[in-house]
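step 3/5: co-fold with 2-acetamido-2-deoxy-beta-D-glucopyranose
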Amino acid sequence: MKTEPVHIRPFIYLQCFLLARLIESSSLGSASPLLISSTVGNQAVLPCSWRKRLESMTSTCYVQWARVTGTVFERRGSDKWEADAFENRLEVPEETLRSGNCSLIIKDVQIGDTGTYESFMVVKLTDQQTKVFIQGIKLLVFDHKSRQTLAPGEDLLLELHTSHSLAVSFQHRDKSESSDLWVKGQQNNSPRLVYDPLKNQLTLKNLSYSDEGTYKVLDKQGLAISTMKLTIEERTKALKVQQPVEKDAASDAADRSSRSALLSASLLLVSFRFSHLFW
Ligand SMILES: *[C@@H]1O[C@H](CO)[C@@H](O)[C@H](O)[C@H]1NC(C)=O
Ligand SMILES: *[C@@H]1O[C@H](CO)[C@@H](O)[C@H](O)[C@H]1NC(C)=O
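step 4/5: write tokens
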């Protein structure tokens, strides 16, 4: 940890305090939260900044990120603290913070991370600590959704997306209930199912018609990380599906109207340009 000589500390705190004033008067501290969306397993960055102008300044500025349930992350110089529930997935790099960027990085983002986050700057003048609100962010985390068509005898590759994937459930096309196909750490009973922990993937080999249905990857709270609908079709039939399908009248009409909207928009653009030229 880089430590400043003791005698300049009050000055630094004062700088932080002035900085806080700047934040307060800038547009950053807006009342409505900014919306950020991400997909499970990806990295999300919740933006936060305190004035670019002060980038070169070395200071012991102190950032705090909180949810309604309480503080989730804090950094003050090289010291940091993170709420246990996040299991080492949060970070505000020290270097980045020093340059005025207090953005919170959430690694391997989970459905349960959805919610509102608020950033604060903690400033200290002699022994008094004050929290200055910087920015509210609303994080939306989406699950993965997909469809696949495979032929009997082929293999199905199932991405588990995150290290927090705990189980895979399967619901047969004609059934209303689903059953566990795979549970992490448990002996799996199907010789056709292969788990690759390095790639974080499952392979279901030698598919048959009875494998047709919905596969869900679930986290420890039972929330769906991904939903995949599998259709089994003979190759020749599958090829036919990929050939152009006749469009229904409604989508055709929609197509036409969007084309004409595009046309009139470009006409508008042209006449706008003309009016610029002529006036
Ligand atoms: C702030 O830092 C984050 C990562 O820590 C980065 O993704 C983002 O681009 C940075 N923002 C600016 C304005 O540099
Ligand atoms: C694949 O499954 C079928 C039955 O669905 C079976 O007859 C065939 O032997 C299996 N092939 C392999 C390579 O296991």
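step 5/5: annotate
The two ends are 64 Å apart (CA to CA).
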